[in-house]
Design a protein that fits this description.
Chain lengths: 314, 314
């Protein structure tokens, strides 16, 4: 593919920053890549992986002359980083981010963006439960959504260039209002994470059932929750601190529904239980049909097909 | 392997019954297999898969002369099935089951077991979100736990024979008190399922975020919940109806903890959030170390390693 940006600067080089660097380089989308991260150890890791052309602990150094700057730190670090780099940004540069929350990002960063620099907030909806530069891989964004939330009046060309970049990384790009984005992710991502963190915590803290029993017998459902409850703690702390209102709103609905379900269990209302369980199964089907999931049983942990065919063919 | 039982009868032939049949035959553990299921369509499916030596809609016919009978229907059908087959059981036969709940099974079935027949309740802790005969595969039980909950005074030889059978299917067998079993599964399996069903239901029922958006953007965490919320509705209805007390007890704890977490979000208590999120990450690690899970990122939905190595080696 052709070069879309002469210089890409990534501030923060965890799972997301590392994956952007690898994908952009593999597909030839940028002339050069600079990465900046505060911790020397993380920077060494990035250097050992050969992720970029230049490495710095100084974000100002990394963003100098960059045409595209993407903030890939936890959301809580965006504001100090932006204050730091504002004076070093090249006129005409695009500043974006990879934060999971958008309303807060717009509110805190927009006033800090210098005249002549284009601010296009972004959220690549992709990730795994692993973190750090070594967890990155270039296919991370393939077939995943990237939501951009530019405010009204943002330079159209800048939005188009950034969209083209994410599309070249394999993502489907969608433009959305920042506030609506935050509601969508509250229910599809933030509350599920909160609930997963919570149930793993509850199970870890029981006297009638030992921790070793919880671990031993986790395959019955519990372990699926532990995957998302293993996501980066600092990143997720910042998500809940910065998307508080939407999370509390969605959590309130979740709790309301759970009370109804709790009552159905208490009153042995089998019909109500079966009705809900049948409805949720259909939603799974829709997600698979939409290409957002595989139908492999048990997340492909086992390989049933060849043997089943053997038996049938005998 | 050597034949452990001359005749195995399976009453119910969904995911579990089908997998037992396939595994027992593949490993040569039984002389012959008979299956019974009420619905003609399911029986035809089993026949087309070649799962057994004989097929019947009449459970009495299937269990005649069987040395091992395993009830593989939803738990709610156990009592009528047992009343039906009691008179047809061979003296000395072992009756077991694959139900996810054990206290209720012991209470309802034990009084129905004829003199001279051994009752050894069992729970293979294995499954996928798919159901029906076609969903079964012989490796389902490999490396998984099978919990047996014989009451005091149960014939030792019968317990040993059944343990040997499950071990031959690849499972690790553990003996446990039925009541304790029900608490263990309430927290490791039943409450996680209830919570997953609930959040999928909540997301399906919103006015600010459309259903198509929930499906579209499900990769952020939500889709992991939909897998277990796609499990068999009737089986799970029966689980909650028959393990009500333990589920309500564990759900109460979950809700208590969730209130604390909700307050941490509301009061922006970042330290409390980060502390919990760090603790839950360690539990994930323990589950992987215990061999109950793979460390593949995102459940192995992507294949990061080869490419990452490429970049490193350049």
């Amino acid at each position: 593919m052709s070069v879309l940006f002469e210089k890409l600067a990534l501030v923060g080089v965890g799972l997301i920053g590392s994956s952007i660097a690898q994908a952009a380089r593999q597909k030839g989308l940028v002339g050069q890549i600079s990465v900046a991260t505060r911790r020397a150890k993380t920077l060494d890791e990035a250097r050992n992986l050969g992720l970029a052309d230049s490495y710095s602990q100084d974000a100002c150094e990394a963003v100098a002359d960059a045409d595209l700057v993407i903030l890939c730190t936890p959301v809580g670090a965006f504001e100090p980083v932006m204050k730091d780099i504002a004076g070093a940004l090249k006129p005409g540069a695009i500043v974006s981010d990879a934060g999971s929350v958008k309303g807060h990002v717009v509110k805190t960063l927009a006033p800090l963006i210098p005249e002549g620099v284009h601010f296009v907030p972004g959220h690549p909806m992709a990730g795994t439960e692993h973190s750090g530069p070594g967890a990155g891989f270039p296919e991370l964004f393939e077939g995943r959504w990237c939501i951009l939330t530019p405010e009204a009046g943002t330079d159209k060309k800048a939005v188009e260039c950034l969209s083209a970049f994410w599309e070249a990384l394999g993502s489907d790009v969608e433009l959305m209002d920042a506030t609506h984005h935050d509601m969508v992710v509250a229910i599809t991502s933030h509350v599920p994470h909160l609930v997963a963190y919570n149930i793993v915590g509850t199970a870890d803290d029981m006297e009638t059932v030992s921790k070793s029993e919880v671990i031993k017998f986790s395959a019955g459902g519990f372990r699926d929750f532990t995957r998302i409850a293993a996501s980066d703690p600092v990143m997720w702390r910042d998500v809940f601190l910065t998307n508080r209102e939407a999370v509390l709103e969605m959590l309130g609905r979740f709790l309301e529904d759970l009370s109804v379900l709790q009552r159905a269990v208490r009153t042995s209302d089998g019909d109500a239980l079966e009705t809900l369980f049948t409805r949720t199964r259909a939603i799974r089907r829709s997600i698979i049909d939409a290409g957002q999931e595989t139908a492999a049983p048990d997340f492909g942990r086992t390989q049933p097909d060849p043997v089943r065919r053997d038996i049938k063919d005998r």
